Amino acid sequence: MFTVGQSAPQLLTELPGPASEWLAERLLAVDCPAFEARRGEREELSGASQSPIVYGDGLGSNVTDADGNVLVDLVAGFGSVAFGHGHPKLAQVLRLQAESLWVALGDVYASEAKVRLCERLAGLMPESGARVILGSSGADAVTAALKTALVTTQKPRIVAFDGAYHGLSHGPLAACGLFPGFRDPFASQMGNFIDFAPYPGIHGATADESIAAVRTLLADGSHGAVLVEPILGRGGCVVPPHGYLEELRALCTVHGALLIFDEVWTGCGRTGAMAISLSRSLLPDIICLGKALGGGFPISACVGRASAMDGWSRLGGRALHTATHFGLPLGCTVALTALDLLIEDDLFARAENIGTWFMLELREVLVGLGVKRVDGRGFMIGVEVEGGAPRALAVSRRVLSKGWIVLTGGIDGATITLTPALNISQDLLESFVAVLAAALREEKW
Ligand SMILES: Cc1ncc(COP(=O)(O)O)c(C=O)c1O
Fold first, then answer.
1. What DSSP assignment string belongs to 410-426?
2. Distance between CA 257 and CA 254 in Å, rounded?
3. Ligand 1 centre from 414 Cα, in Å?
4. Does the Cβ of 137 fall within 6 Å of ligand 1?
5. What are the tens digits of pLDDT across the range 202-230?
6. Which of 102, 164, 319, 402 has the smallest number of Cβ neighbours within 10 A?
7. Residues of the chain with pLDDT > 90: what percent?
8. Higher model confidence: residue 180 or residue 221?
């Protein structure tokens, strides 16, 4: 296993340091104005500076910022850098592939790497005959899945869930239940093909209420699919009760709707399995993978069983869903190596074992410190704090000031979300628990 880059924070300046401040100011002047607006709102909410650090380089679970400060990364590229920064094997295959072939011709003339990756991903499905549509982002994989549901079932509507996040391009955005503010400004450009159902644990809904709502929606026969995250990621690491996903499976089967598991975040080892939907024999019609699939390189996949994908063959003689960089050899080669690493380094077991230990440790140590919930699975853990988004932001700034990088998430921004690399050292996690406890103690609620 890759074990370098596991140092405790080493800070040379206050955070952010002068070089980060200078670069961040320059970026604000040219980046999308939305980021400046977000920073302003967060500063107002939390009463703390939200001025960012700027990354310099990364190694393992360490990031060095523009001022030379060494930090510990508990976010890992929004969960994508699952093997740590600068993994030598991934870097090597990328280098070799870069010297050989960067881009083939997608759906026209493929590369061998694409052939091998599609075979490998199709082989994940329990039945033979599975098909794969590659993409560059998680949103691409979900877009492919949404289109697949329509072309195969001929039913236009989709059931999605409150609290869900599937990416922000127009198709997946329509299914974003995390917070209406994501959809509302673009409503006039979006298709009206989504019906939202409650997700267990979101806005107080129970699993029974959620299942009843899905049943009612599917009963009218107009829904081609149910699109679900088996654990809500950005929604705050919310785990539905046991048996819930099985009930969704049964409903989809009865009503002839595809069951699409968006495992862009949960998949590729993060929760201790290649995919939750595969480890639990949920017979997924489609699985969307992304993030960790490329170890940080942008590549994603919509993997569907034969019966779910066959609608594509009835659309005439055009490849109706493709893009310049879909299936590019650079990404395919990295993904093949990433899939190997999950097995070679036994990272499924590590996420399951060390992740569970980490969650239990957090639960035990954070008692009495204004924490509502510590939940998740494997290395996808949410700590929901009392005091809402203002306190979560203030706590995350406080831990940043000590050299630990975390994010906030959840439907109301009150969850501190932890998605470290799957090979992070247990010592670092143990140190972090103490740092988080101290920050929670200092930020009253
Ligand atoms: C469950 C899930 N699906 C899809 C996406 C979108 O992925 P991307 O940001 O790569 O488009 C995300 C991103 O966080 C996600 O968590």
1. STTS-EEEE---TT--H
2. 8
3. 19
4. yes
5. 999 999 999 999 999 999 999 999 999 99
6. 319
7. 94
8. 221
Number of the ligand 1 atom closest to the C-alpha atom of 139: 11
Q: Is the CB of residue 167 below 6 angstroms from any atom belonging to ligand 1?
A: yes
Is residue 138 lining ligand 1, measured as CB closer than 6 Å?
yes
| Minimal-distance CA residue to ligand 1 atom 3 | 166
Claim to verify: residue 279 and residue 328 sit in the same structural domain = yes
Positive or negative torsion for Cα 76, 78, 79, 80: negative
- Residue 138 in any domain: the answer is yes
Indicate the top mutation candidate among 75, 176, 265 to test ligand 1's pocket, ranked by most ligand atoms within 8 A of CB: 265
Residue 319's pLDDT is what? 84
Find out whether the beta carbon of 330 lies less than 6 Å from any atom of ligand 1: no
Phi-psi region of 185 (alpha: psi -120 to 50; beta: other; left: phi over 0): alpha
Using the atom order of ligand 1, give the atom closest to the CA of residue 79: 14
Is the same domain home to 173 and 212?
yes
Is 297's C-beta closer than 6 angstroms to any atom of ligand 1?
A: no
**Residue 272 located in a structural domain:** yes
Q: Check whether 48 has a pLDDT greater than 90.
A: no
Kindly provide the residue ranges of all beta strands, DSSP E only, lying in 326-411, ordered along the sequence. Answer: 371-377, 380-385, 404-405, 407-409
CA distances from 87 to 197, 314, 352, 423, 434 (A): 40, 42, 21, 11, 28
| CATH number of the domain residue 149 falls in | 3.40.640.10
Ligand 1 center to 167 CA (angstroms): 5
| Ligand 1 nearest atom to the CA of residue 164, by list position | 1
pLDDT, residue 199, reads: 98
